[in-house]
């Protein structure tokens, strides 16, 4: 590599460099076995150990209460859009669920869930192109609902639930794909949290689902075996062959995070990182932030250029300077800097310097 590149892609996203180096070092010979981690049985004692260690590390990092189970499931985050209703919509006879529409993934999730029962959209911020987390009155939560669904960080829009809603007896479900392990969260507030693995955990294709054990066992009878949470729990996620490589990388990422001081330490860095960009955006009218300040994400910083004609040049020059994948999602346009846990503060600082320089030249 001739020049340093910082990867601001939204997902699959950058992994910590030391993790990728370790993968490279031990790829041909895992644990002195003389074979690669990708060619050992998922039923071997070595893989069993790896899986157990991954669970333990995750539990430790988020201080997971004992009554929560960790599942590794196929199909990334969006397979959970189906798995969630299939498994827990039947918690109550009415088969109703409440969804908050805070962005495009929230929309896809409620559309998918509506195949299985009655879905109520209690609040939406569609009117303002999802620049905020929509407000709702907690007294409007139907206690007959089986669950209450949020997208805790909206990757495309750059918004985050900075205050986790109180939903009383109705279990709170969160898609935390783009923010898991980025801030301290009290998992006991949730009935279920899931995250596709390709943003803060490892490679794509899997989801980690963390579920309170009393929500297990209510799946609809037509739920595919491989999407059934209780089955998955019973088999320790080995009902069939999982993506063993992804689980191996997740373990390395969790070890790396622990070495960094854990979630609390990375949260401080994430706040610093995002503040570098938000401060810059707030101080100028050259760049326009998309998300409302009180709903800003620390993981996905979305902005446009006041003069939209400059966007192409901005992205082209950024790429030439080593700032990769800054193009915003088509739903918002503009630019997006995804600055997940693995992005070092130097990368964000370098981007901010580039942005200031670009403004001086073109402002
Ligand atoms: C990336 C993302 C998804 C989609 O993940 P897939 O693994 O591609 O299904 C869903 N929800 C959120 C919040 C995301 O950031």
Overview of the structural elements:
With 363 residues, this protein is of the alpha/beta class. The protein has nine helices and 14 strands. The chain has helices spanning 17-26, 45-62, 76-88, 104-113, 229-234, 244-259, 262-282, 311-320, 345-362, and strands at 6-7, 68-74, 96-101, 118-124, 147-151, 153-154, 159-160, 172-175, 192-196, 206-212, 287-289, 300-305, 323-324, 335-338. The strands form four sheets. It has a seven-stranded mixed β-sheet with strand order 2-10-9-8-5-3-4. Strands 11-12-14 form a three-stranded antiparallel β-sheet, with helices on one face. The chain has a two-stranded parallel sheet with strand order 1-13. Helix 4 (104-113) links the parallel strand 3 (96-101) and strand 4 (118-124). The protein is globular, with a radius of gyration of 21 Å. The mean pLDDT is 97. The structure holds pyridoxal-5'-phosphate (PLP). Residues 11, 76-78, 105, 151, 155, 175, 177-178, 196, 204 line the site of pyridoxal-5'-phosphate.
Summary?
By secondary structure, the chain is of the alpha/beta class. 34% of the residues lie in helices and 17% in strands.
Q: Provide the CATH architecture of the largest domain.
A: 3-Layer(aba) Sandwich
The tally of strands reads 14
Helix-strand pattern, N to C?
EHHEHEHEEEEEEEHHHEEHEEH
Estimated radius of gyration: 21 Å
Largest sheet: 7 strands, mixed
Low-confidence stretches: none
CATH superfamily of the largest domain: Type I PLP-dependent aspartate aminotransferase-like (Major domain)
Structural class computed from helices and strand pairing: alpha/beta
Approximate strand percentage: 15-25%
Question: How many structural units, i.e. domains?
Answer: 2
Enumerate how many helices there are, as a single number: 9
């Amino acid at each position: 590599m001739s020049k340093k590149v910082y990867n601001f892609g939204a997902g699959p996203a950058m992994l910590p460099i030391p993790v990728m180096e370790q993968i490279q070092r031990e790829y041909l010979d895992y644990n002195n076995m003389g074979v690669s981690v990708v060619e050992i049985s998922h039923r071997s004692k070595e893989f069993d150990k790896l899986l157990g260690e991954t669970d333990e590390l995750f539990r430790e990092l988020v201080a997971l209460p004992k009554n929560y189970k960790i599942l590794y499931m196929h199909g990334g985050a969006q397979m959970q859009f189906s798995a969630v209703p299939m498994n827990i919509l039947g918690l109550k006879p009415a088969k109703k669920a409440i969804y908050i529409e805070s962005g495009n993934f929230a929309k896809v999730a409620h559309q998918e869930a509506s195949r299985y029962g009655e879905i109520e959209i209690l609040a939406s911020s569609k009117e303002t192109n999802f620049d905020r987390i929509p407000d709702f009155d907690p007294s409007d939560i139907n206690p007959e609902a089986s669950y209450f669904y949020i997208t805790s960080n909206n990757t495309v829009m750059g918004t985050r639930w900075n205050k986790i809603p109180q939903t009383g007896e109705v279990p709170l479900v969160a898609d935390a794909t783009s923010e898991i392990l980025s801030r301290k969260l009290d998992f006991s507030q949730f009935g279920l949290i899931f995250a596709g693995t390709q943003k803060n955990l490892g490679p794509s294709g899997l989801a980690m689902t963390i579920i309170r054990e009393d929500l297990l066992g209510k799946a609809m009878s037509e739920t595919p075996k491989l999407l059934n949470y209780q089955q998955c729990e019973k088999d320790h996620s080995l009902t069939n062959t999982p993506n063993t490589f992804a689980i191996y990388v997740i373990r390395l990422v969790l070890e790396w995070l622990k070495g960094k001081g854990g979630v609390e330490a990375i949260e401080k860095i994430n706040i610093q990182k995002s503040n570098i960009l938000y401060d810059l955006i707030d101080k100028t009218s050259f760049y326009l932030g998309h998300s409302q300040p009180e709903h800003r994400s620390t993981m996905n910083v979305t902005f446009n250029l006041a003069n939209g004609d400059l966007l192409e040049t901005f992205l082209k020059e950024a790429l030439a300077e080593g700032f990769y994948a800054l193009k915003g999602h088509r739903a918002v346009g503009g630019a997006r800097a995804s600055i997940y846990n693995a992005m070092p503060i130097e990368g964000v600082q370098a981007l901010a310097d580039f942005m200031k320089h670009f403004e001086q030249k073109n402002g």
